[in-house]
Design a protein that fits this description.
Elements lengths: L1 H9 L4 H4 L7 H9 L5 H9 L11 H8 L4 H12 L1
Helix pairs in contact: 1-3, 5-6
């Protein structure tokens, strides 16, 4: 969703316009777009992740906390702990 929202914004839409989609608030658009602050390696991992029954669940909440970390090495360390 974050990539899709970014694409819409690059096309000139505002967060308010995107939020006019049913069941989406402007705050929710911002929350989702904050995931774009994740290190590119984390984004790639998530985009290529395949579900397996023994896969550890990665929540958006956990990812949002990591996305607030400014240092990219710290982000990678925190993500490593999350997926272990």
């Amino acid at each position: 969703m974050a990539f899709h929202y970014r694409e819409l914004m690059e096309q000139g839409k505002t967060k308010a316009e995107i939020a006019r989609t049913p069941d989406v608030s402007r705050a929710r658009v911002t929350q989702v777009m904050n995931l774009l602050n994740l290190h590119p390696d984390i984004q790639e991992y998530l985009n290529n992740a395949k579900y397996k029954p023994d896969t550890k669940l990665i929540t958006e909440r956990g990812l949002c906390q990591i996305a607030t970390i400014q240092d990219s090495n710290e982000q990678l360390r925190a993500f490593g702990k999350l997926i272990r």
